[in-house]
Amino acid sequence: MIARPTSLLVRTNLTLAVSSLAIVAIAVVALQFFVVQPIAEQSADDQAALLVLTAQTWVELPPESRPYFELELAEQHDLFISAEAAAYPPARYDESPFLTQLEERLNARLGQPVAITEDKELLWATLPMGGYQLQVGFSGTRRDIQPLNVGLIIAGLGAGVVLITSAIIVLRVTRPLVQAAERADAFRGGANFDPLPEKGPKELVVLARNLNTMAREISSLLSNRTTLLAGISHDLKTPLARMRLAVELLPETVDPVLVARLERNLESMDELITDALKFARGTHEPTKPTELRALVADLLQRLDPPIPFDCGEPATTVVDVAPGALTRVLTNLINNAQQHGQDAAVRLRGRQVHVIDNGPGIPEAHREAVFQPFFRLDRSRSAATGGSGLGLAIAHQLCEAHGWSITISDHPGGGTDVRVSI
Q: At a CB cut-off of 8 Å and minimum separation 6, what does 308 contact?
């Protein structure tokens, strides 16, 4: 089965093509029945009348005047008349609808069958007239008229003109729409949005203006949100440090269990604040050419315990990325793999970084939800054992901000394969 086209340009062109072909077909049929066929019938009738009139005139002329009449017919009208019947082969009717119509008109005028024969140059109509079997010869050029071929030429040329015209019109309309779709798909909420040109038809100008306004407002909203998040997280560091100092200065008579609980809560708060600050800094980090294998290897060297690294082919892959944001993404994924799987490994294939673990895996139904903040597969996990719940969410949002993709799949050897595609 033929797949249904998804492109607006292709769909519109196909719709216009079908409708234009239908219009051309209707025009050709109408031309055939109301123009070509009546003209052909009238031409055959005129030719039959001329042949009959020629034969009648020849019969009515005195014998001594007939040679002069025959000469005038040949010179002026390309007609040849002979009273001596010659044996010629029958004309090929299947090649000329005109001959069929001419024979019908001759039969109607004379009231008896008329045979049409041909030689190498002329067509001959044998007309019984005044006791003679007169043969009137005429040119066979009219036999070459092919209404069907004419209709096909008109249909082909007409369809070509209509399709070219419709393609030009469709391109003028769809090109701005395609451009708007590409810009909207590439928009990640940053300030580097390239505004659409606000020109063309009124509707497209309104669409481009609204899209540009929406992009500016979203960029401003995200920037303000990130600034606010960074400001709050930074300002919380000071009271958090004071609370740590206050806990350290508590007298020894205070219940140790209570002190330990306070310290765990402070650590959780500090982890949340640190994650928020790193996320806020990562979304606005500029990009620069970075050797991907060296970045991943440097990250893994700083981890304890070490993690296996399979970098594949030795070819160097230089990518234009924000190195700090990418490091934060991979760090969060590796921490998540170490926390929920017994072992973790990293594999590099071209522009794709795979973080693999041999844990219980993530059900397919939850592979989108795990990127939401504070979502936990195991609802019974505590903050101490399950982390802050922001690791995968921060990794996902950093990937969205920089135009990377992050997907989760099952690893063939068991566990989970989280792939970051640059």
A: 345, 346
| For range 113-125, the mean pLDDT | 87
Residue linked to tokens 């990009």: 287
Q: How far apart (Å, rounded) are the C-alpha atoms in residues 335 and 359?
A: 13
Q: 3-class DSSP state for residue 347?
A: strand
Question: 261 and 295, same structural domain?
Answer: no
> Long-range contact list for 362-366, CB < 8 A, 24+ apart?
362/408, 362/416
Rounded CA-CA distance 127/110 in Å is 8
Six token digits for residue 133:
């079997």
Task: Give the type of residue at 341.
Answer: G
| Residue 289 and residue 270 in one domain | no
Q: Which residues contact 367 (CB under 8 A, 6 or more apart)?
A: 408
Cα distances (angstroms) measured from residue 11 to each of 4, 179, 334, 407:
9, 17, 46, 32
Query: Do residues 214 and 255 share a domain?
Result: yes
- Provide the sign of the torsion angle of the four alpha carbons 356, 357, 362, 363, taken in this order: positive
Give the tokens for residue 406. Answer: 């992050």
Number of domains in the chain: 3
Check whether residue 51 and residue 133 sit in a common domain.
yes
- Structural domain of residue 196, as residue ranges? 187-284
For 170-204, what is each residue's pLDDT tens digit? 777 777 777 777 777 777 666 566 787 887 777 77
Reported as a single tens digit per residue, the pLDDT across 263-315 is 887 777 777 777 666 666 556 677 888 888 888 888 888 877 778 888 776 66
> Are 113 and 78 in a shared domain?
yes
